[in-house]
Design brief:
heterodimer; A: 415 residues; Helix Hairpins; Heat Shock Protein 90; five-stranded antiparallel sheet; 10 strands; B: 226 residues; alpha/beta; Arc Repressor Mutant, subunit A; five-stranded parallel sheet; 8 helices; 23% strand
Chain lengths: 415, 226
Amino acid sequence: MKLLQRTALYQALLAIPMVVLGTGIGYGLVRHTVTQEVEEQLENHAELLQKQLRAGGTIAAFSAPDVLVHITPGSVAEVQFSDTVIYNILEAEDIPWRVGRFRATMPDGSTATITIGRSQLETDELVFGIALSIAAVLVLFTLCTLVLFRWLSARLWRPFYANLLVMEYFRPDGPSPPLAGSNVDEFRGMTRALDDMMANMRRDFTAQKRFTEQAAHELRTPLAILRGRLDQLIQSPAMGEREADAIQGMYTAAERMGRTITDMLLLAKIGEGGTPAEDVDWKRSIREELELLKDLIMQQGLSVKITEEERCGIQLPPMQAQILMSNLLRNAVQHNVQDGSITITTKRDAITVSNSGDALPVDPATLFERFAKGDPSSASAGLGLSMVKEIAERNGLVAAYTFENGMHVLSVHKG
Amino acid sequence: MKVLLIEDEAELRRSIRGYLQDEGHLVESANDFPSAMEKAQLHAYDAVLVDITLPKGNGLDIVRAMRKANNASGIIIISAKGSLDDKVLGLDLGADDYLPKPFHLPELVARLRALVRRKQAAGSAAITVGKLRMVPEDKLVEVDGVPVDLTVTEFDLLLFLVVNKDRVLSRSAILEHVWGDLAERLDRDDFLYAHIKNLRKKLADHGGAELIKTVYGIGYRLSDRA
């Protein structure tokens, strides 16, 4: 749920008891005031009657639709008010009355009780009307506040949402729109912090890229010289067996070094990040890499099976997808046996490459480490699978290895 | 062929120039940006080899300037930066090829040959070594006028030997040319030997038995001489 929606929801939930409580308090206050008013009227009436009685007049019991008076012998200690319900024949319904009992002295000196009642029908209606008005005003007020607050929040949070959008699309190697300014201190602080962070990331990215390129240049140039010299040297007709052997050794060493440099730079490049992940046509990628490996597969007499159980939806930056697939398949070819097999299986969120081969002479846990090799004398630098792992981890995936029934199983899947 | 070599690394310049001169090319060289720019603009070359990282400038600017001046020379960028961006940009600017360092000199020769073939012969130009005749564009191989049926790999292999005829080619140069960076995965000696054996046999069947010679411990050489 969005922040603004959630805020509005909480406000609405809070407003409901407030409106109920507000209406209740309003009703109670009005009711109280009206009751007091009625009692005062009853008292005034009683006082008038008491005076008339003292003056020697007689008062008959009196009953009208909204007033009731009668005098009974006997006395009450003090003034009493009570509510009662009387059936009204005219209206054919029960009607609430407020009734007061007052003490009176008759002309003959005996005490009596004057009972005066007033119909509450109209006052009740009035009170309900007022309470309803209060409720209506409160509801209206609350609604207005909610709408206004929603609008204000949206306005107030605008720099936040603008910055969020910028951050979502931020790439250290690409341009990005400026962050939103604001006159709110917190947002200004956030913008400043984000600006610093983005600038740092850009600087680091550029520095790393520059370093990688310079390192590449500095390492490859001497290697190019070495190779060029060797290529010239072997043209010499006066070469004996010993010289040839030495030269072959140098070629092999130079090649091995070149490969290690290439792999290290690739690894550094993967670490740079910067390119967004996208959908990959894995089926095609597998076919293309197998095509490159065709000669090797034929030489070893390997049988290759591709099983597409589901279309694979793993997303990667295009270059990394290619490196991943190429390393997985090359690994499967390289560590295979004569007339062995390779099985490639794709599921919606997993790619599995399994190949026949002898059990690993090293701890499987070290397999994905940099410079880990199954065979220490191998000319490969052992960076292939660490690249697979690096790519997987960079993209929230898991690279796993198991050895089952004489098959090495390497898989890359969603974590 | 007249070649301009733009390379700031003296040792590399020397070995490339030496190798190309031995091939019979005329090589002029420049070691920094201003002199390279001057030579590229003043003289006509069949091919220009240009390094990207140069003192006082960027090799890509030379490519840009040459193409802007409608200079039709073949251009091969040789760079140690290994940056994909540079490669894409270089080719966009009008370079004909991009060869990452470190490369084998026979590879450079092969690229130069291919480039000049593309530039000069509108149709198909044949390369002949003794009784062997190859037309790369048509994927055609003949010995004494009789076509030889080769696989794609064998054709690549033979063409590489042919354009570098009379030169000793190391196994590592051949493997890298034919199988690219896969070369590292190959059980090298066996693998290459198997392919050479097949190729030799096919050529021998057509009377070209002695063309491919083994240079002990190093590699192979194609020659119609003894």
